[in-house]
Write a structure and sequence with these properties.
The structure holds three protein chains of three kinds. Chain A is mainly alpha-helical. Chain A contains 14 helices and no strands. In chain C, strand 4 and strand 5 form a beta hairpin. The relative contact order of chain C is 0.14. Classes of the chains: A mainly alpha, B mainly alpha, C alpha/beta.
Chain lengths: ~325, ~325, ~325
């Protein structure tokens, strides 16, 4: 695999990041809402105390955050800050910085999304491969029907059903939240087990719908691969069904699926945000949701930017890994 | 020279079955397509009956007077209540609305969003893909570049940002459709472009050109008919993506909150901690109908895929 | 020396399709001795590839082996269990596929694909022994040892075909079936591959069945030739007999249609088309196109009969002679 290929990909992805950052910078600012004003108004409502010089305070804060400068100048200032790693302060949760908010929420999101994506990938592809293999047991093939339906249903709805049946009716698992109400996060076994218990329903909802997606894609690949001459010849060699399944069938059908993994991480963000809302998990999605409600420019940008970087980085990793897996591409740079 | 002997009388007696019968037979074989269509038909009938039986325009919207009565589970499972003619079949929500009316109207509006966004997305995608492939050169390069750069962007993120930023009053069913379609057209563009490219090279286009057909004629008479299966599946795909995205936005509270969209209903249920409070029917029935919508559309997409790509047919 | 290593007796294969039943093989019988080379020719759809698949027991639904025996080295393959058949493949009867381009797993090294074949039959063999066996095999098909570590896409078409041959001789089978091994290759590579097959066969003393439609190739390398038509074996003779004095009218027409240096420019074909296996004509399947057809041919089905010289033919023209001989 040539260096020029990697370089081209990096440049392309940098370009995508830049375009997207510009878009997410400007969108929140097209609304007429001023987050500083809203926050201060909310504070005064809550405490019942309205400072006399409210307008002056608002103006001072606007000055501090540079919100009264022309948009183009704000763009340049902020972007140069971003390049240095400074994502700015949170306007609604001042003086907390955007970075600190991201870092607080990150573990919950990574734990859920990353793990469920990997589990779905492995489980789904295996299931899909078995569904298309003629020598699989009957019940595996019968799974195809319900999987086809599941594939399109947003995890949110599945989560809702699960909450209803498992948490509400059967009372087996908690309804929502990342931990039992009132618990303080600590590094004890008790806490970890409790946290895991709370992750089960969210994880299962996400896995159910993703598994279906991978399974169906793999099944399509599987049908194609089965017709290939080398699977036939493997049979002529007298290899057992399980060996052919593993070395000739799955190994070839899995390759194109890997490219889908990068895109999957992107779409998992979508369902992730919704699931976090449903289950009241304090991950990046909820923080983003709150920031949008308060039109907190910097947090909105920070989190969205972080998500985009993460997604494009994952895409790059998959781009680099794929040639390592497929020898045909790897050695073709002669 | 030997020819196969055919019995002339048997040929005359053969009557092809009517189109309708052939269609039904095919649906029975292509189970995904059949079940998918059946689900959507059921939902359409459900919505229509809701509109006919109740005064939906009044009952689906929050009452002017905020009623303080707690949500009512309805008389679907409770036979004692069924004696009372005024009982609400599927119950009511926190705001006193009849859930049946809410769902009937919500489904209709969901269909509206899907159809509108689906149509726009497919048309834009087809036109762009077509132009790019047919005329090639700089135009192709530009369109391709645009598509490739916009494709990796997590679209939902942008949609959430847009929906969050615009003035609440501006959010209606129509604007939802537009937001949703803004970044959705790239899919069909790619697919149509690839198809037209492969067709352009093929012989029948060259033959048509040689026989003197004008460009426009070639486009409509030769290429279009071959694109139809892809147009069909692109359209369904766009409808699905539109409903999926608008659902996501509504559930976050970013939709047209006054309208009884199912996503909105779920948002309010979430907001009022419905399940926590035991009002399980409020989010449950709308969720089930929406699951049917998504499931049905997915099955139709799989079914269409079987038509377009015969290799995926059941290997039994 | 007659030492029958392969006996096919009354093999029947039918395909049950949506459009009806197709009789792909109709009571085909023949015998092969060790070291003999049989060429199997016929038009597309005559049943020659089906024959190969049937012998390897690779007929998949909607096809079925309806009856008959395939006896290799004393064992009837048709009656074996699935497990035993797996063991028999490659070790007793091996197959060289038609399109070698795609017959090798693109993501596995050549060596790995050879080793897994050995391992499936001899799981106890040590790694070193298996590698040695593979290297020997590669040498006998004239490939360098380095090929062991390479991937299929790094090899040319001819090399890939020779790898397939190398794989087929790994376990020293008694019967080797080569299904049109040279069809997709250029003439020079064709010669290489044919020479390889010949050499390998001589080393092993195996019987070879070469399936193809290139009569010239058959004449050069084979001992006997069998002609198939519409699922039936029409004639089986030695190469000498077939090319100088073919018996069956179809075989005669085939030989006659071969371009001849003497009457350049004059090409003779066989009028008509081969019948679809779904609608085989009654009686002798060839009678509609036969220039020596008799009235009886339309209704009576000829069976394979042996002539006094030891040739086999299924044609009513020779019924009386065969009756006289027995």
């Amino acid at each position: 695999m040539s260096w020029s290929y990697i370089l081209r990909r990096i440049v392309f992805l940098f370009f995508v990041i830049w375009v997207t950052s510009t878009i997410i910078f400007f969108i929140p600012r097209i609304s007429a809402r001023n987050p500083v004003r809203e926050r201060l108004a909310e504070l005064s409502r809550m405490t019942g105390f309205t400072p006399v010089d409210l307008e002056k305070i608002i103006a001072a804060y606007n000055e501090k955050f540079g919100l009264n400068k022309p948009l183009a100048e704000q763009y340049v200032d902020y972007m140069s800050g971003v390049l240095r790693g400074d994502l700015g302060p949170s306007l609604a949760k001042y003086p907390k910085t955007v970075w600190s908010l991201i870092l607080d929420a990150l573990p919950w999101t990574i734990a859920l999304l990353f793990v469920t994506t990997l589990i779905s990938f492995v489980l789904g592809n295996l299931l899909g491969a078995m569904t298309a293999w003629p020598k699989s047991p009957r019940w595996v093939k019968a799974l195809m029907g319900p999987m086809m339906m599941l594939q399109g249903v947003p995890p949110y709805l599945l989560g809702l059903l699960l909450i209803f049946f498992v948490a509400f009716r059967l009372k087996l698992l908690p309804i929502n939240g990342a931990m039992n109400a009132g618990t303080v996060p600590e590094f004890s076994l008790k806490f970890i087990l409790d946290a895991l218990r709370h992750q089960i329903l969210p994880a299962v909802s996400m896995i159910l719908s993703s598994v279906a997606f991978w399974a169906l894609g793999m099944r399509g690949m599987g049908v194609t691969i089965q017709g290939e001459d080398y699977v036939n010849f493997a049979e002529h060699k007298g290899l057992s069904s399980s060996v052919i399944f593993r070395d000739y069938y799955v190994r070839n059908a899995l390759l194109p699926q890997v490219t889908g993994l990068a895109l999957a991480f992107g779409s998992v963000i979508t369902s992730g945000v919704l699931i976090e809302t449903l289950f009241a998990l304090p991950g990046l999605g909820s923080v983003l949701g709150q920031a949008i409600a308060q039109n907190d420019y910097f947090v909105i940008f920070g989190i969205s930017f972080f998500i985009i970087i993460a997604v494009t980085l994952l895409m790059l990793i998959v781009d680099i890994i794929y040639p390592l897996l497929d020898p045909r591409i790897r050695l073709n740079t002669k | 020279m030997t020819t196969l002997a055919v019995n002339p009388s048997s040929v005359a007696a053969f009557q092809p079955p009517s189109r309708g019968v052939l269609a039904m037979r095919y649906l029975r074989r292509n189970k995904s397509l059949g079940i998918g269509i059946a689900l959507l038909v059921f939902l359409t009938l459900f919505s229509i009956s809701g509109h006919l039986l109740l005064n939906v325009n009044k009952m689906a919207y929050p009452l002017a007077v905020k009623s303080k009565m707690p949500p009512d589970p309805g008389c679907l499972f409770d036979s004692t209540k069924q004696l009372n003619k005024n009982c609400l079949v599927l119950g009511s929500d926190f705001y006193g609305r009849d859930l049946f009316a809410v769902m009937a109207r919500g489904l209709a509006q969901t269909a509206q969003i899907g159809a509108l966004a689906g149509l726009i997305g497919t048309v834009v995608g087809t036109v762009l893909g077509f132009i790019a492939a047919y005329f090639g050169g700089v135009i192709d390069a530009v369109i391709r570049a645009l598509t490739e750069v916009l494709l990796p962007i997590p679209v939902f993120l942008i949609q959430v940002l847009i929906a969050g930023a615009i003035d609440k009053k501006l959010v209606t069913v129509t604007t939802m459709a537009l937001i949703v379609v803004l970044l959705a057209w790239m899919g069909p563009t790619r697919v149509i472009r690839a198809q037209v490219l492969s067709m352009r090279e093929r012989m029948f286009v060259n033959v048509a050109k040689l026989s003197g057909m004008s460009n426009l004629e070639i486009i409509f008479k030769e290429i279009m008919p071959n694109l139809l299966p892809f147009l069909g599946s692109s359209f369904v795909g766009q409808v699905f993506a539109a409903i999926f995205a608008s659902f996501g936005l509504a559930v976050l509270g970013l939709g047209p909150l006054r309208e009884p969209l199912i996503g909105n209903t779920l948002y309010f249920a979430q907001y009022q901690a419905a399940i926590f409070n035991g009002w399980w029917w409020w989010p449950l029935w709308p969720s089930l109908t929406l699951i049917m919508v998504f499931g049905g559309l997915t099955l139709i997409m799989v079914g269409l895929d079987e038509i377009a790509n015969p290799r995926v047919r059941r290997s039994e | 020396m007659t030492n029958p290593v392969l006996q096919v007796i009354d093999l029947q294969v039918t395909y049950y399709t949506d459009s009806g039943r197709a009789k792909a093989l109709d009571n085909v019988s023949f015998t092969l001795n060790a070291g003999e080379k049989l060429g199997l020719v016929g038009e597309s759809g005559s049943g020659k590839s089906t024959m190969a698949l049937a012998m390897m027991r690779m007929i998949k639904p909607p096809g079925r082996v309806e009856g008959g025996q395939v006896i290799v080295d004393g064992i009837d393959l048709v009656k074996l269990s699935e497990q035993d058949m797996l063991k028999a493949r490659l070790s007793k009867i091996a197959y060289i596929p038609q399109g070698a381009m795609n017959s090798l797993n693109p993501v596995m090294r050549i060596g790995a694909q050879m080793m897994d074949a050995i391992r499936a039959h001899n799981p106890r063999m040590s790694r070193g022994e298996m590698t040695d066996r593979c290297m020997q095999s590669l040498e006998s098909v004239d490939l360098k040892r380095e090929v062991f570590k390479m991937y299929p896409h790094e090899l040319s078409g001819g090399m890939k075909q020779r790898v397939c041959i190398a794989i087929s001789i790994l376990l020293r089978p008694k019967v080797i079936i080569a299904d049109e091994p040279t069809s997709a290759l250029d003439v020079v590579t064709q010669r290489q591959v044919m020479e390889t097959i010949n050499r390998v066969q001589k080393d092993l003393g195996a019987a070879v069945i070469l399936i193809g439609h290139d009569m010239g190739l058959m004449a050069q390398s084979m001992d006997k030739v069998a002609v198939m038509y519409a699922g039936k074996l029409t004639e089986l003779s030695t190469v000498q007999q077939m090319f100088t004095h073919p018996l069956h009218p179809y075989a005669q027409a085939l030989i006659h249609s071969l371009p001849n240096l003497d009457n350049k420019g004059v090409l003779a074909g066989i009028p008509g088309l081969a019948p679809s296996l779904l609608r085989i004509p009654p009686g002798c399947p060839f009678h509609p196109r036969c220039n020596q057809a008799m009235e009886r041919c339309k209704s009576v089905v000829p069976f394979l009969k042996q002539t006094p010289e030891g040739r086999w033919v299924s044609c009513l023209l020779y019924e009386e002679e065969a009756v006289k001989a027995s």
